[in-house]
Design a protein that fits this description.
Helix content of chain B: 10-25%
Number of helices of chain B: 3
Radius of gyration of chain A: 14 Å
Strand order of the largest sheet of chain B: 8-1-2-10-9
Radius of gyration of chain B: 22 Å
Helix content of chain A: under 10%
Mean pLDDT of chain A: 82
Largest sheet of chain A: 8 strands, mixed
Number of strands of chain A: 8
Low-confidence stretches of chain B: none
Structural class of chain A: mainly beta
Largest sheet of chain B: 5 strands, mixed
Oligomer: heterodimer
Strand order of the largest sheet of chain A: 3-4-5-1-2-8-7-6
Structural class of chain B: alpha+beta
Mean pLDDT of chain B: 88
Low-confidence stretches of chain A: 1-8, 128-136
Order of helices and strands of chain B: HEEEEEHEEEEEH
Shape of chain A: globular
Distance between the termini of chain A: 28 Å
Order of helices and strands of chain A: EEEHEEEHEE
Number of helices of chain A: 2
């Protein structure tokens, strides 16, 4: 996580949690500037994964801080702020951490709903820099 | 005393020597192996690499993973990746059944879950029953094969998990 994301106290971290293209994601609250009604970029396209399912038809855009300014990410409601204690935050397992394909995926939080993929929006690829999918 | 019927004694002693050898063979060094199925083939890992055998549980996908990584599972406060072992060894992954299991493998360099179709047995096998791998094996897995042996009349491919993890990582990096 970049310096801006290192606002967590030893007690935990506040994440803005949302669903996007069928997966649950979280972004450190200090990297989120606001919500907007207009369309944003799809995380499925930016991170190269297949859309599992859309939970809702109610889409919003999350305005987040990136290295080049602000970006808009398309998210699905519900969108909420939640505090995750230290024990609920996990680094990526070594096999996944070694992958070069999704640098914006920085870790995982775990709650009663399962895994929340922690994103660093500052490391999301630009549209033209998206990694190509690979298969092994 | 007659010297004629010595041959039966020699035969008997020879049989005793053979019998003793057989006993010694039973005491030969053994290795603990975890035998499992992927599609219609049997494979095994050395038992010391397998920390735990878990029943299948929900796996959560993580973006950026290749198809051969199913995702992550939550295990007593820790997160573990899960590798689709069938895809790694180049065979077709079977649909989920009640026998589907996750082996938690640990080597000095790496730890990960490994999805398998079925775990058959954890057993000790005399080392001398493990034969060198056949040269006709799939080239993809040959560097990871430690040997082969038979289990209930079927060939089992013994894989070295440490080399498999290394080879897998080299392939995706």
């Amino acid at each position: 996580m970049n310096q801006q994301g290192l606002t967590a106290s030893s007690a935990g971290l506040d994440l803005v949690v949302f669903t996007a293209d069928g997966l649950r994601f979280g972004i450190v609250s200090t990297q989120v500037c606001g919500l907007h009604p207009h369309p944003g970029e799809s995380l499925a396209i930016l991170l190269n994964f297949s859309v599992v399912t859309h939970q809702t038809t109610c889409f919003r855009s999350l305005r987040v801080l990136s290295l080049t300014g602000e970006r808009f990410i398309r998210v699905e409601e519900p969108i909420y702020l939640r505090h995750y204690f230290f024990d609920a935050l996990h680094p990526l397992p070594p096999l996944i951490a070694a992958l070069p394909t999704a640098p914006a995926v920085r870790g995982l939080a775990w709650d009663e709903g399962g895994a929340v993929v922690i994103l660093d929006p500052g490391l999301l690829p630009e549209g033209r820099d998206r990694p190509s999918p690979f298969f092994l | 005393m007659s010297h004629a019927p010595i041959s039966p004694l020699n035969d008997l002693l020879a049989l005793r020597v053979q019998a003793k050898k057989a006993v010694i063979e039973l005491d030969a060094a053994t290795v603990k192996l975890v035998i499992f199925a992927l599609n219609d083939m049997l494979y095994a890992f050395h038992g010391h690499y397998i920390v735990e055998i878990l029943p299948y549980r929900e796996i959560f996908f993580v973006p950026g993973c290749p198809a051969s990584i199913a995702g992550v599972i939550y295990l007593r406060g820790d997160i573990e990746s899960v590798l689709r072992l069938a895809m790694v060894v180049g065979t077709e992954e079977q649909p989920l059944t009640r026998h589907t299991a996750i082996l938690l493998g640990r080597t000095p360099q790496m730890q990960s879950g490994l999805r398998v179709d079925r775990v058959l047995e954890v057993m000790d096998i005399p080392e001398n029953q493990i034969q060198p791998p056949l040269a006709t094996f799939n080239e993809k897995i040959l560097p990871w094969v430690d040997g082969v042996f038979t289990y209930t009349g079927q060939m089992v491919i013994l894989l070295d998990l440490s080399r498999l993890f290394q080879g897998y990582q080299a392939g995706i990096s």
